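Q: Got a minute? One more chain.
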Amino acid sequence: MTDRHRIFAILLLAAVLLAACSGTPSATPTEATTEPVAPTAPPATPEPPSELTVCLGKEPLGLYLYGGSSRAQWSVLEAVYDGPIDQRGYTDLPVILAQIPSAENGDEQITAVPVQRGQMVLAADGNITPLDTGLTVLPAGCADETCAVTWDGAAALEMDQQQLTFRLLDGLKWSDGAPLTAADSVYSFQVAADPATPVNPLALDRTESYAALDETTVVWTGVPGYHASEPSAYFFIPLPQHAYGAMSAADLLTDEQSNRAPLGWGPYIIESWTGGESIELARNPNYFRAGEGLPRFDRLTYRFIGDHADNNLAALVEGGCDIVDETTLLEEQLQSVRNTTLNGRIQTFISLGPDWEHLDFGIRPAAYDAGLNPFQTARQDFFSDLRVRQAVSACIDRQALVSELLYNQSQVPVGFFPPDHPLYAADLPQITYDPAHGAQLLDETGWLDHDGDPATPRQAVGVANVLDGTEFSVIYSTTPEKLRVSTASRIAQMLGDCGINVTVQPLDAGTLYAPGPQGILFGRNFDLAQFAWQSGRGSPCFLYAGEQIPANDNGWLGVNITGWSDPIYDAACQAALTADPSDAASVYAANRAVQEQFVQQLPVLPLYYTIHLTAARPEICNLQVDSSARSEFWNLEDLAAGTDCP
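A: Always. Here it is, folded:
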Protein backbone atom coordinates (compact mmCIF):
# COMPACT_ATOMS: atom_id res chain seq x y z
CA MET A 1 0.00 0.00 0.00
CA THR A 2 1.35 3.39 -0.87
CA ASP A 3 1.85 6.11 1.71
CA ARG A 4 -0.97 8.09 0.10
CA HIS A 5 -3.43 5.23 0.42
CA ARG A 6 -2.18 4.42 3.97
CA ILE A 7 -2.84 8.00 5.16
CA PHE A 8 -6.29 7.99 3.52
CA ALA A 9 -7.18 4.70 5.34
CA ILE A 10 -6.05 6.07 8.75
CA LEU A 11 -8.15 9.22 8.34
CA LEU A 12 -11.18 7.19 7.31
CA LEU A 13 -10.78 4.86 10.33
CA ALA A 14 -10.47 7.84 12.69
CA ALA A 15 -13.69 9.31 11.34
CA VAL A 16 -15.57 6.06 11.87
CA LEU A 17 -14.27 5.71 15.45
CA LEU A 18 -15.17 9.31 16.23
CA ALA A 19 -18.75 8.69 15.11
CA ALA A 20 -19.03 5.48 17.14
CA CYS A 21 -17.87 7.17 20.37
CA SER A 22 -20.28 10.09 20.02
CA GLY A 23 -23.16 10.34 22.58
CA THR A 24 -25.60 11.60 20.01
CA PRO A 25 -27.52 8.93 18.12
CA SER A 26 -26.51 8.88 14.49
CA ALA A 27 -29.05 9.60 11.81
CA THR A 28 -29.82 7.02 9.11
CA PRO A 29 -28.04 8.12 5.97
CA THR A 30 -30.24 9.02 2.93
CA GLU A 31 -29.49 7.64 -0.57
CA ALA A 32 -28.56 10.35 -3.11
CA THR A 33 -31.01 10.58 -6.06
CA THR A 34 -28.67 12.26 -8.59
CA GLU A 35 -26.94 10.21 -11.32
CA PRO A 36 -23.20 9.83 -10.92
CA VAL A 37 -21.26 12.35 -13.03
CA ALA A 38 -19.01 10.79 -15.65
CA PRO A 39 -15.48 12.09 -15.67
CA THR A 40 -14.94 14.85 -18.26
CA ALA A 41 -12.77 13.77 -21.19
CA PRO A 42 -9.95 16.13 -22.04
CA PRO A 43 -10.68 18.20 -25.18
CA ALA A 44 -9.33 16.66 -28.38
CA THR A 45 -6.30 18.37 -29.80
CA PRO A 46 -7.34 19.86 -33.15
CA GLU A 47 -5.46 18.62 -36.18
CA PRO A 48 -3.18 21.36 -37.49
CA PRO A 49 -4.11 22.45 -40.99
CA SER A 50 -2.23 20.55 -43.63
CA GLU A 51 0.03 22.77 -45.73
CA LEU A 52 1.84 22.42 -49.02
CA THR A 53 4.74 24.69 -49.91
CA VAL A 54 5.61 25.07 -53.57
CA CYS A 55 8.78 27.00 -54.36
CA LEU A 56 9.03 29.00 -57.56
CA GLY A 57 12.15 30.31 -59.20
CA LYS A 58 10.36 33.43 -60.36
CA GLU A 59 7.66 35.65 -58.94
CA PRO A 60 4.81 36.18 -61.42
CA LEU A 61 4.51 39.72 -62.70
CA GLY A 62 0.76 39.33 -62.29
CA LEU A 63 -2.03 36.78 -62.53
CA TYR A 64 -4.41 38.52 -64.92
CA LEU A 65 -5.40 36.08 -67.64
CA TYR A 66 -4.68 38.49 -70.49
CA GLY A 67 -1.80 40.33 -68.84
CA GLY A 68 0.87 37.95 -70.05
CA SER A 69 1.74 34.28 -69.82
CA SER A 70 4.63 32.66 -67.98
CA ARG A 71 5.28 29.33 -66.33
CA ALA A 72 5.42 30.96 -62.91
CA GLN A 73 2.06 32.60 -63.56
CA TRP A 74 0.42 29.31 -64.52
CA SER A 75 1.99 27.48 -61.60
CA VAL A 76 -0.11 29.77 -59.40
CA LEU A 77 -3.17 29.99 -61.64
CA GLU A 78 -3.56 26.20 -61.55
CA ALA A 79 -4.61 26.74 -57.93
CA VAL A 80 -7.10 29.47 -58.84
CA TYR A 81 -8.48 27.92 -62.02
CA ASP A 82 -9.06 24.21 -62.57
CA GLY A 83 -8.85 23.62 -66.29
CA PRO A 84 -11.16 24.64 -67.87
CA ILE A 85 -9.62 22.03 -70.17
CA ASP A 86 -6.61 19.88 -69.27
CA GLN A 87 -4.28 18.10 -71.65
CA ARG A 88 -2.94 14.61 -70.94
CA GLY A 89 -0.87 12.88 -73.55
CA TYR A 90 -1.84 15.59 -76.04
CA THR A 91 -5.51 14.73 -75.57
CA ASP A 92 -7.96 17.37 -74.37
CA LEU A 93 -9.88 16.47 -71.21
CA PRO A 94 -12.86 18.58 -70.07
CA VAL A 95 -12.71 19.87 -66.50
CA ILE A 96 -15.58 22.35 -66.14
CA LEU A 97 -17.12 21.35 -69.47
CA ALA A 98 -19.37 18.36 -69.98
CA GLN A 99 -17.43 17.29 -73.09
CA ILE A 100 -15.11 18.51 -75.83
CA PRO A 101 -17.11 19.32 -78.99
CA SER A 102 -16.80 16.75 -81.75
CA ALA A 103 -18.75 15.52 -84.73
CA GLU A 104 -19.32 12.25 -82.87
CA ASN A 105 -21.06 13.86 -79.88
CA GLY A 106 -22.95 16.36 -82.02
CA ASP A 107 -21.41 19.51 -80.55
CA GLU A 108 -19.45 20.20 -83.74
CA GLN A 109 -21.54 21.09 -86.77
CA ILE A 110 -20.50 22.02 -90.32
CA THR A 111 -23.13 23.88 -92.34
CA ALA A 112 -23.11 25.34 -95.86
CA VAL A 113 -23.95 29.05 -95.60
CA PRO A 114 -24.31 31.80 -98.22
CA VAL A 115 -21.60 34.46 -98.09
CA GLN A 116 -21.77 38.07 -99.20
CA ARG A 117 -19.36 40.71 -100.44
CA GLY A 118 -17.41 42.25 -97.57
CA GLN A 119 -18.00 39.32 -95.22
CA MET A 120 -14.86 37.99 -93.52
CA VAL A 121 -13.97 34.56 -94.92
CA LEU A 122 -10.98 32.25 -95.08
CA ALA A 123 -9.31 32.60 -98.47
CA ALA A 124 -7.71 29.62 -100.18
CA ASP A 125 -4.27 30.97 -99.24
CA GLY A 126 -5.13 30.70 -95.54
CA ASN A 127 -5.66 34.40 -94.84
CA ILE A 128 -8.78 35.86 -93.25
CA THR A 129 -10.01 38.59 -95.57
CA PRO A 130 -13.23 40.29 -96.75
CA LEU A 131 -14.91 38.51 -99.65
CA ASP A 132 -14.43 40.47 -102.85
CA THR A 133 -14.31 39.96 -106.59
CA GLY A 134 -11.32 37.87 -107.62
CA LEU A 135 -10.81 36.23 -104.22
CA THR A 136 -10.08 32.50 -104.38
CA VAL A 137 -11.90 30.45 -101.75
CA LEU A 138 -12.95 26.89 -101.00
CA PRO A 139 -16.70 26.58 -101.67
CA ALA A 140 -18.99 24.41 -99.55
CA GLY A 141 -17.97 20.76 -99.68
CA CYS A 142 -14.44 21.56 -100.92
CA ALA A 143 -11.53 20.49 -98.72
CA ASP A 144 -8.46 21.62 -100.66
CA GLU A 145 -7.25 23.86 -103.47
CA THR A 146 -8.04 21.30 -106.17
CA CYS A 147 -11.67 22.45 -106.02
CA ALA A 148 -11.10 26.12 -105.15
CA VAL A 149 -13.04 28.79 -107.03
CA THR A 150 -12.33 32.43 -107.78
CA TRP A 151 -15.43 34.51 -107.05
CA ASP A 152 -16.65 36.63 -109.94
CA GLY A 153 -18.47 39.06 -107.67
CA ALA A 154 -21.94 38.09 -108.89
CA ALA A 155 -22.56 34.35 -108.61
CA ALA A 156 -24.17 32.94 -105.46
CA LEU A 157 -21.51 31.42 -103.25
CA GLU A 158 -21.76 29.08 -100.30
CA MET A 159 -18.96 28.12 -97.94
CA ASP A 160 -18.72 25.68 -95.05
CA GLN A 161 -19.09 27.19 -91.58
CA GLN A 162 -18.16 25.42 -88.35
CA GLN A 163 -20.05 25.73 -85.06
CA LEU A 164 -18.77 24.44 -81.73
CA THR A 165 -21.06 24.12 -78.72
CA PHE A 166 -19.46 24.21 -75.26
CA ARG A 167 -21.53 23.05 -72.28
CA LEU A 168 -20.51 24.05 -68.76
CA LEU A 169 -21.13 21.76 -65.81
CA ASP A 170 -24.13 22.68 -63.69
CA GLY A 171 -23.65 24.49 -60.39
CA LEU A 172 -20.25 26.05 -60.97
CA LYS A 173 -19.43 29.01 -58.73
CA TRP A 174 -16.79 31.68 -58.54
CA SER A 175 -14.74 31.63 -55.37
CA ASP A 176 -16.86 34.49 -53.97
CA GLY A 177 -19.99 32.35 -54.35
CA ALA A 178 -21.43 34.01 -57.46
CA PRO A 179 -22.64 31.67 -60.21
CA LEU A 180 -20.19 30.99 -63.03
CA THR A 181 -22.13 31.03 -66.30
CA ALA A 182 -21.69 30.96 -70.06
CA ALA A 183 -21.98 34.75 -69.99
CA ASP A 184 -18.63 34.88 -68.17
CA SER A 185 -16.96 33.08 -71.07
CA VAL A 186 -18.59 35.48 -73.54
CA TYR A 187 -17.38 38.39 -71.40
CA SER A 188 -13.85 36.95 -71.57
CA PHE A 189 -14.11 36.83 -75.36
CA GLN A 190 -15.22 40.46 -75.42
CA VAL A 191 -12.29 41.52 -73.24
CA ALA A 192 -9.87 39.58 -75.44
CA ALA A 193 -11.30 41.25 -78.54
CA ASP A 194 -10.85 44.73 -77.10
CA PRO A 195 -7.98 46.55 -78.86
CA ALA A 196 -6.49 47.41 -75.46
CA THR A 197 -5.95 43.73 -74.64
CA PRO A 198 -2.53 42.48 -75.84
CA VAL A 199 -3.40 39.00 -77.13
CA ASN A 200 -2.50 37.19 -80.32
CA PRO A 201 -5.48 37.75 -82.63
CA LEU A 202 -5.32 34.33 -84.31
CA ALA A 203 -8.39 32.85 -82.59
CA LEU A 204 -10.27 36.15 -82.63
CA ASP A 205 -9.73 36.65 -86.36
CA ARG A 206 -11.20 33.23 -87.05
CA THR A 207 -14.29 33.85 -84.93
CA GLU A 208 -17.47 35.19 -86.51
CA SER A 209 -19.47 35.09 -83.29
CA TYR A 210 -19.27 33.82 -79.72
CA ALA A 211 -22.57 33.80 -77.88
CA ALA A 212 -24.29 32.30 -74.83
CA LEU A 213 -27.45 30.32 -75.52
CA ASP A 214 -28.34 29.88 -71.84
CA GLU A 215 -26.67 29.78 -68.41
CA THR A 216 -24.41 26.85 -69.28
CA THR A 217 -24.12 26.84 -73.09
CA VAL A 218 -21.91 28.95 -75.33
CA VAL A 219 -21.57 28.61 -79.11
CA TRP A 220 -18.53 29.53 -81.20
CA THR A 221 -19.13 30.19 -84.89
CA GLY A 222 -16.11 30.39 -87.16
CA VAL A 223 -15.66 32.55 -90.22
CA PRO A 224 -16.86 30.73 -93.35
CA GLY A 225 -14.20 28.43 -94.75
CA TYR A 226 -12.29 27.97 -91.50
CA HIS A 227 -12.26 24.61 -89.73
CA ALA A 228 -10.78 24.49 -86.21
CA SER A 229 -8.81 21.29 -85.71
CA GLU A 230 -8.49 22.01 -81.97
CA PRO A 231 -11.95 22.94 -80.67
CA SER A 232 -10.65 23.59 -77.15
CA ALA A 233 -8.64 26.57 -78.44
CA TYR A 234 -11.92 28.37 -79.11
CA PHE A 235 -13.39 28.15 -75.62
CA PHE A 236 -12.53 31.40 -73.88
CA ILE A 237 -11.49 30.94 -70.24
CA PRO A 238 -14.21 32.62 -68.15
CA LEU A 239 -13.64 35.93 -66.40
CA PRO A 240 -15.97 37.11 -63.59
CA GLN A 241 -18.16 39.70 -65.26
CA HIS A 242 -19.91 40.52 -61.98
CA ALA A 243 -16.55 41.59 -60.49
CA TYR A 244 -14.71 43.02 -63.50
CA GLY A 245 -17.51 44.21 -65.75
CA ALA A 246 -17.41 47.84 -64.63
CA MET A 247 -13.73 48.16 -65.63
CA SER A 248 -12.36 48.77 -69.10
CA ALA A 249 -10.07 46.25 -70.78
CA ALA A 250 -7.21 48.70 -70.29
CA ASP A 251 -7.96 49.04 -66.56
CA LEU A 252 -7.93 45.26 -66.10
CA LEU A 253 -4.30 45.18 -67.16
CA THR A 254 -3.30 47.10 -64.03
CA ASP A 255 -6.17 46.46 -61.60
CA GLU A 256 -5.08 45.17 -58.20
CA GLN A 257 -7.70 42.43 -57.92
CA SER A 258 -7.41 41.05 -61.45
CA ASN A 259 -3.61 40.92 -61.15
CA ARG A 260 -2.99 40.06 -57.50
CA ALA A 261 -6.11 38.23 -56.27
CA PRO A 262 -8.14 37.05 -59.27
CA LEU A 263 -11.40 35.25 -58.67
CA GLY A 264 -11.48 31.68 -59.88
CA TRP A 265 -13.37 28.41 -59.51
CA GLY A 266 -10.38 26.24 -58.60
CA PRO A 267 -9.32 24.52 -55.38
CA TYR A 268 -7.80 27.55 -53.63
CA ILE A 269 -8.39 31.23 -52.94
CA ILE A 270 -5.58 33.76 -52.72
CA GLU A 271 -5.47 35.29 -49.23
CA SER A 272 -2.35 37.43 -49.48
CA TRP A 273 0.60 38.25 -51.69
CA THR A 274 3.80 39.52 -50.11
CA GLY A 275 5.96 40.87 -52.89
CA GLY A 276 9.33 39.17 -53.19
CA GLU A 277 8.35 36.52 -50.65
CA SER A 278 5.21 34.47 -51.12
CA ILE A 279 1.55 34.03 -52.05
CA GLU A 280 -0.68 32.47 -49.39
CA LEU A 281 -3.82 30.54 -50.36
CA ALA A 282 -6.59 28.71 -48.51
CA ARG A 283 -9.21 26.14 -49.52
CA ASN A 284 -11.99 27.43 -51.75
CA PRO A 285 -15.25 26.46 -50.01
CA ASN A 286 -17.08 26.87 -53.32
CA TYR A 287 -14.81 24.52 -55.26
CA PHE A 288 -16.97 22.26 -57.37
CA ARG A 289 -15.02 19.16 -56.30
CA ALA A 290 -15.01 19.94 -52.58
CA GLY A 291 -17.44 17.06 -52.03
CA GLU A 292 -14.68 14.68 -53.12
CA GLY A 293 -12.46 15.87 -50.28
CA LEU A 294 -10.41 18.06 -52.60
CA PRO A 295 -8.04 19.74 -52.38
CA ARG A 296 -6.19 17.46 -49.99
CA PHE A 297 -4.15 20.23 -48.38
CA ASP A 298 -5.89 22.93 -46.33
CA ARG A 299 -3.40 25.62 -47.21
CA LEU A 300 -1.00 26.31 -50.04
CA THR A 301 2.01 28.62 -50.10
CA TYR A 302 4.01 29.66 -53.12
CA ARG A 303 7.47 30.85 -52.08
CA PHE A 304 9.70 32.83 -54.42
CA ILE A 305 13.22 31.55 -53.89
CA GLY A 306 14.95 32.66 -57.07
CA ASP A 307 16.51 30.60 -59.82
CA HIS A 308 19.83 29.72 -58.16
CA ALA A 309 19.64 26.00 -58.71
CA ASP A 310 22.05 24.98 -55.95
CA ASN A 311 20.12 26.98 -53.33
CA ASN A 312 16.81 25.54 -54.54
CA LEU A 313 18.06 21.99 -54.29
CA ALA A 314 19.20 22.70 -50.73
CA ALA A 315 15.81 24.23 -49.84
CA LEU A 316 14.10 21.06 -50.98
CA VAL A 317 16.43 18.70 -49.16
CA GLU A 318 16.33 20.76 -45.94
CA GLY A 319 12.54 21.04 -45.87
CA GLY A 320 11.92 24.65 -46.84
CA CYS A 321 10.01 23.44 -49.89
CA ASP A 322 7.79 20.44 -50.53
CA ILE A 323 8.01 20.90 -54.30
CA VAL A 324 10.21 23.08 -56.48
CA ASP A 325 8.76 23.84 -59.88
CA GLU A 326 10.56 24.02 -63.19
CA THR A 327 11.11 27.79 -63.00
CA THR A 328 13.79 27.16 -60.37
CA LEU A 329 16.08 26.03 -63.21
CA LEU A 330 17.20 22.86 -61.48
CA GLU A 331 18.31 21.60 -64.90
CA GLU A 332 21.33 23.85 -64.45
CA GLN A 333 22.36 21.55 -61.59
CA LEU A 334 21.33 18.41 -63.45
CA GLN A 335 24.19 16.27 -62.21
CA SER A 336 23.63 17.25 -58.56
CA VAL A 337 19.90 16.64 -58.90
CA ARG A 338 20.53 13.18 -60.32
CA ASN A 339 22.89 12.29 -57.48
CA THR A 340 20.46 13.52 -54.82
CA THR A 341 17.65 11.53 -56.42
CA LEU A 342 19.75 8.37 -56.45
CA ASN A 343 20.41 8.89 -52.73
CA GLY A 344 16.65 8.84 -52.09
CA ARG A 345 16.52 12.34 -50.64
CA ILE A 346 14.24 13.75 -53.35
CA GLN A 347 12.12 12.51 -56.21
CA THR A 348 12.45 14.09 -59.65
CA PHE A 349 10.16 14.35 -62.64
CA ILE A 350 11.65 15.10 -66.07
CA SER A 351 9.66 15.81 -69.21
CA LEU A 352 10.90 16.68 -72.67
CA GLY A 353 9.21 19.54 -74.49
CA PRO A 354 6.70 20.32 -75.84
CA ASP A 355 8.69 23.55 -76.04
CA TRP A 356 11.92 23.72 -77.94
CA GLU A 357 14.81 26.14 -77.93
CA HIS A 358 15.59 27.60 -81.31
CA LEU A 359 17.96 30.05 -82.93
CA ASP A 360 15.99 32.61 -84.94
CA PHE A 361 17.41 34.38 -87.96
CA GLY A 362 16.57 38.05 -88.39
CA ILE A 363 15.64 37.44 -92.03
CA ARG A 364 13.65 40.59 -92.66
CA PRO A 365 14.10 43.20 -89.92
CA ALA A 366 11.43 45.85 -89.48
CA ALA A 367 13.85 48.41 -90.91
CA TYR A 368 13.29 46.77 -94.31
CA ASP A 369 9.50 47.25 -94.31
CA ALA A 370 9.80 50.62 -96.02
CA GLY A 371 12.20 49.16 -98.58
CA LEU A 372 15.67 47.67 -98.40
CA ASN A 373 18.64 49.84 -99.31
CA PRO A 374 21.99 48.67 -97.94
CA PHE A 375 23.34 52.20 -98.32
CA GLN A 376 20.66 53.64 -96.02
CA THR A 377 20.44 51.08 -93.22
CA ALA A 378 22.89 50.10 -90.52
CA ARG A 379 21.58 46.53 -90.62
CA GLN A 380 22.88 44.62 -93.65
CA ASP A 381 20.93 41.74 -95.18
CA PHE A 382 22.72 38.83 -93.54
CA PHE A 383 20.14 36.06 -93.64
CA SER A 384 17.62 36.42 -96.48
CA ASP A 385 19.66 33.99 -98.61
CA LEU A 386 18.66 30.43 -97.65
CA ARG A 387 22.21 29.23 -98.31
CA VAL A 388 23.52 31.47 -95.54
CA ARG A 389 20.99 30.03 -93.09
CA GLN A 390 22.01 26.55 -94.21
CA ALA A 391 25.67 27.46 -93.69
CA VAL A 392 25.06 28.73 -90.17
CA SER A 393 23.09 25.57 -89.36
CA ALA A 394 25.83 23.32 -90.74
CA CYS A 395 28.41 25.06 -88.53
CA ILE A 396 26.49 24.35 -85.29
CA ASP A 397 26.96 20.97 -83.59
CA ARG A 398 23.60 20.66 -81.86
CA GLN A 399 24.28 17.16 -80.54
CA ALA A 400 27.35 18.53 -78.76
CA LEU A 401 25.12 21.10 -77.06
CA VAL A 402 22.84 18.31 -75.82
CA SER A 403 25.77 16.20 -74.64
CA GLU A 404 27.83 18.92 -73.00
CA LEU A 405 25.14 21.15 -71.50
CA LEU A 406 22.21 18.79 -70.92
CA TYR A 407 24.01 15.54 -70.04
CA ASN A 408 22.18 13.81 -72.91
CA GLN A 409 18.85 14.30 -71.14
CA SER A 410 17.39 16.07 -74.19
CA GLN A 411 17.37 15.51 -77.95
CA VAL A 412 17.92 17.51 -81.12
CA PRO A 413 14.53 18.31 -82.70
CA VAL A 414 13.66 17.16 -86.18
CA GLY A 415 10.56 19.34 -86.48
CA PHE A 416 7.99 21.08 -84.31
CA PHE A 417 7.03 18.19 -82.04
CA PRO A 418 8.72 16.24 -79.22
CA PRO A 419 9.24 12.47 -79.58
CA ASP A 420 6.15 11.50 -77.55
CA HIS A 421 3.83 13.62 -79.69
CA PRO A 422 1.48 11.79 -82.09
CA LEU A 423 2.57 14.14 -84.92
CA TYR A 424 6.30 13.58 -84.41
CA ALA A 425 7.92 12.64 -87.74
CA ALA A 426 11.27 10.93 -87.25
CA ASP A 427 11.90 10.62 -90.99
CA LEU A 428 12.10 14.34 -91.74
CA PRO A 429 15.24 15.57 -93.55
CA GLN A 430 18.08 16.00 -91.08
CA ILE A 431 20.09 19.19 -90.61
CA THR A 432 23.56 17.75 -90.15
CA TYR A 433 26.66 19.20 -88.57
CA ASP A 434 29.15 19.74 -91.40
CA PRO A 435 31.32 22.86 -90.94
CA ALA A 436 33.23 22.19 -94.17
CA HIS A 437 29.96 22.30 -96.10
CA GLY A 438 29.00 25.42 -94.16
CA ALA A 439 32.22 27.13 -95.21
CA GLN A 440 31.59 26.11 -98.82
CA LEU A 441 28.10 27.65 -98.77
CA LEU A 442 29.49 30.88 -97.33
CA ASP A 443 32.04 31.02 -100.14
CA GLU A 444 29.28 30.47 -102.71
CA THR A 445 27.21 33.35 -101.37
CA GLY A 446 30.13 35.81 -101.38
CA TRP A 447 31.07 35.73 -97.69
CA LEU A 448 34.79 35.20 -98.17
CA ASP A 449 37.73 34.51 -95.88
CA HIS A 450 39.70 37.47 -97.20
CA ASP A 451 42.86 36.96 -95.13
CA GLY A 452 43.01 33.20 -94.55
CA ASP A 453 42.75 33.78 -90.80
CA PRO A 454 39.79 31.91 -89.24
CA ALA A 455 40.02 34.17 -86.20
CA THR A 456 38.82 37.15 -88.24
CA PRO A 457 35.29 37.40 -89.65
CA ARG A 458 34.53 36.82 -93.29
CA GLN A 459 33.76 39.81 -95.51
CA ALA A 460 31.11 40.37 -98.15
CA VAL A 461 32.13 40.38 -101.81
CA GLY A 462 29.20 40.70 -104.18
CA VAL A 463 26.62 39.58 -101.61
CA ALA A 464 23.11 40.70 -102.57
CA ASN A 465 21.86 43.65 -100.49
CA VAL A 466 25.12 43.84 -98.53
CA LEU A 467 27.83 46.45 -98.97
CA ASP A 468 31.14 45.02 -100.13
CA GLY A 469 33.63 44.77 -97.31
CA THR A 470 30.95 44.29 -94.64
CA GLU A 471 32.20 41.93 -91.95
CA PHE A 472 30.00 38.98 -91.03
CA SER A 473 29.61 40.16 -87.43
CA VAL A 474 26.25 39.70 -85.71
CA ILE A 475 24.68 40.07 -82.27
CA TYR A 476 23.12 37.03 -80.58
CA SER A 477 20.30 38.08 -78.21
CA THR A 478 18.86 35.85 -75.49
CA THR A 479 17.85 35.90 -71.82
CA PRO A 480 20.46 35.72 -69.03
CA GLU A 481 19.55 32.20 -67.81
CA LYS A 482 22.70 30.17 -67.34
CA LEU A 483 21.78 27.44 -69.82
CA ARG A 484 20.87 29.90 -72.57
CA VAL A 485 24.03 31.93 -72.10
CA SER A 486 26.11 28.75 -72.12
CA THR A 487 24.36 27.62 -75.30
CA ALA A 488 24.89 31.00 -76.94
CA SER A 489 28.56 31.02 -75.98
CA ARG A 490 29.18 27.56 -77.45
CA ILE A 491 27.36 28.48 -80.65
CA ALA A 492 29.41 31.67 -80.88
CA GLN A 493 32.57 29.54 -80.72
CA MET A 494 31.29 27.17 -83.40
CA LEU A 495 30.29 29.99 -85.74
CA GLY A 496 33.60 31.71 -85.09
CA ASP A 497 35.33 28.61 -86.46
CA CYS A 498 33.37 29.19 -89.68
CA GLY A 499 34.35 32.85 -89.90
CA ILE A 500 31.22 34.40 -88.39
CA ASN A 501 31.84 36.76 -85.49
CA VAL A 502 29.12 36.52 -82.84
CA THR A 503 28.64 38.79 -79.83
CA VAL A 504 26.37 37.27 -77.17
CA GLN A 505 23.95 39.82 -75.72
CA PRO A 506 22.01 38.59 -72.65
CA LEU A 507 18.95 40.76 -72.02
CA ASP A 508 16.35 40.67 -69.27
CA ALA A 509 13.04 39.17 -70.36
CA GLY A 510 11.22 42.49 -70.21
CA THR A 511 13.64 44.00 -72.70
CA LEU A 512 13.93 40.99 -75.00
CA TYR A 513 10.20 40.29 -75.22
CA ALA A 514 9.01 43.91 -75.25
CA PRO A 515 6.38 44.68 -77.91
CA GLY A 516 7.19 46.44 -81.15
CA PRO A 517 8.20 48.70 -82.59
CA GLN A 518 10.94 49.22 -79.98
CA GLY A 519 11.15 45.61 -78.77
CA ILE A 520 14.11 43.46 -79.76
CA LEU A 521 12.17 40.37 -80.84
CA PHE A 522 8.63 41.58 -81.48
CA GLY A 523 9.92 44.77 -83.04
CA ARG A 524 12.09 42.61 -85.36
CA ASN A 525 15.27 44.39 -84.31
CA PHE A 526 17.78 41.53 -84.01
CA ASP A 527 20.39 39.53 -85.92
CA LEU A 528 20.21 36.18 -84.11
CA ALA A 529 17.99 35.37 -81.13
CA GLN A 530 17.45 32.33 -78.94
CA PHE A 531 14.29 31.56 -76.98
CA ALA A 532 11.61 28.86 -76.88
CA TRP A 533 8.25 28.22 -78.49
CA GLN A 534 5.82 25.55 -77.37
CA SER A 535 3.99 22.95 -79.43
CA GLY A 536 0.49 21.96 -78.39
CA ARG A 537 -1.66 19.13 -79.60
CA GLY A 538 -2.02 20.73 -83.03
CA SER A 539 0.49 22.32 -85.34
CA PRO A 540 2.39 25.45 -84.26
CA CYS A 541 3.17 26.16 -87.92
CA PHE A 542 1.35 29.51 -87.67
CA LEU A 543 4.39 30.79 -85.76
CA TYR A 544 6.10 31.25 -89.13
CA ALA A 545 3.11 32.19 -91.28
CA GLY A 546 3.38 35.36 -93.32
CA GLU A 547 0.29 36.84 -91.69
CA GLN A 548 1.99 36.51 -88.30
CA ILE A 549 4.86 38.91 -89.01
CA PRO A 550 4.63 41.70 -86.39
CA ALA A 551 4.52 45.04 -88.14
CA ASN A 552 3.11 48.51 -87.87
CA ASP A 553 0.00 47.65 -89.88
CA ASN A 554 -1.09 44.88 -87.47
CA GLY A 555 -0.19 46.70 -84.27
CA TRP A 556 2.95 44.56 -83.78
CA LEU A 557 0.85 41.63 -82.56
CA GLY A 558 2.25 38.88 -84.79
CA VAL A 559 4.61 36.13 -83.60
CA ASN A 560 6.69 35.47 -86.73
CA ILE A 561 9.58 37.61 -85.56
CA THR A 562 11.94 36.40 -88.30
CA GLY A 563 10.05 38.39 -90.93
CA TRP A 564 10.31 35.35 -93.23
CA SER A 565 7.40 34.61 -95.53
CA ASP A 566 6.84 31.87 -98.09
CA PRO A 567 3.52 31.14 -99.86
CA ILE A 568 4.27 27.41 -100.23
CA TYR A 569 4.87 27.12 -96.51
CA ASP A 570 1.76 29.16 -95.74
CA ALA A 571 -0.38 26.86 -97.88
CA ALA A 572 1.09 23.78 -96.21
CA CYS A 573 0.48 25.33 -92.80
CA GLN A 574 -3.11 26.10 -93.68
CA ALA A 575 -3.61 22.48 -94.76
CA ALA A 576 -2.17 21.28 -91.44
CA LEU A 577 -4.35 23.62 -89.41
CA THR A 578 -7.55 22.66 -91.23
CA ALA A 579 -6.98 18.92 -91.65
CA ASP A 580 -9.99 16.86 -90.62
CA PRO A 581 -9.27 15.78 -87.02
CA SER A 582 -11.35 12.63 -87.52
CA ASP A 583 -8.87 11.44 -90.18
CA ALA A 584 -5.65 10.76 -88.26
CA ALA A 585 -3.70 9.77 -91.37
CA SER A 586 -4.56 13.03 -93.14
CA VAL A 587 -3.66 15.07 -90.07
CA TYR A 588 -0.29 13.33 -89.81
CA ALA A 589 0.46 13.73 -93.53
CA ALA A 590 -0.43 17.43 -93.52
CA ASN A 591 1.70 18.11 -90.46
CA ARG A 592 4.62 16.17 -91.85
CA ALA A 593 4.42 18.19 -95.08
CA VAL A 594 4.54 21.56 -93.33
CA GLN A 595 7.41 20.41 -91.10
CA GLU A 596 9.34 19.35 -94.19
CA GLN A 597 8.92 22.86 -95.61
CA PHE A 598 10.04 24.27 -92.27
CA VAL A 599 13.21 22.14 -92.18
CA GLN A 600 14.05 22.96 -95.79
CA GLN A 601 13.47 26.72 -95.53
CA LEU A 602 15.06 27.22 -92.08
CA PRO A 603 13.44 30.39 -90.76
CA VAL A 604 14.90 29.18 -87.46
CA LEU A 605 17.26 26.42 -86.38
CA PRO A 606 15.77 24.12 -83.69
CA LEU A 607 18.44 23.50 -81.04
CA TYR A 608 17.06 21.11 -78.41
CA TYR A 609 13.88 20.25 -76.59
CA THR A 610 13.54 22.07 -73.30
CA ILE A 611 13.97 19.91 -70.21
CA HIS A 612 11.29 20.45 -67.60
CA LEU A 613 12.55 19.33 -64.22
CA THR A 614 10.34 19.30 -61.15
CA ALA A 615 11.49 17.90 -57.81
CA ALA A 616 9.63 17.00 -54.63
CA ARG A 617 10.21 15.62 -51.18
CA PRO A 618 9.89 11.81 -51.06
CA GLU A 619 6.60 11.87 -49.12
CA ILE A 620 4.71 13.90 -51.75
CA CYS A 621 2.48 11.80 -54.01
CA ASN A 622 0.20 12.13 -57.05
CA LEU A 623 2.49 14.59 -58.82
CA GLN A 624 2.10 13.61 -62.47
CA VAL A 625 4.24 15.61 -64.88
CA ASP A 626 2.95 15.57 -68.45
CA SER A 627 4.82 17.30 -71.27
CA SER A 628 1.55 18.27 -72.96
CA ALA A 629 0.05 19.89 -69.87
CA ARG A 630 0.03 23.65 -69.36
CA SER A 631 1.82 23.23 -66.02
CA GLU A 632 3.18 20.42 -63.86
CA PHE A 633 0.45 21.38 -61.36
CA TRP A 634 -2.46 20.53 -63.66
CA ASN A 635 -3.79 18.19 -60.91
CA LEU A 636 -2.77 20.32 -57.93
CA GLU A 637 -5.97 19.46 -56.05
CA ASP A 638 -4.95 15.77 -55.96
CA LEU A 639 -1.49 16.26 -54.45
CA ALA A 640 -1.11 14.60 -51.07
CA ALA A 641 1.55 13.55 -48.58
CA GLY A 642 2.34 10.78 -46.14
CA THR A 643 -0.65 8.80 -44.87
CA ASP A 644 -2.99 10.57 -47.30
CA CYS A 645 -1.19 8.92 -50.20
CA PRO A 646 -2.66 5.81 -51.83
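A: Residues 1-45 have pLDDT under 50 and may be disordered.
Q: Perfect, thanks.
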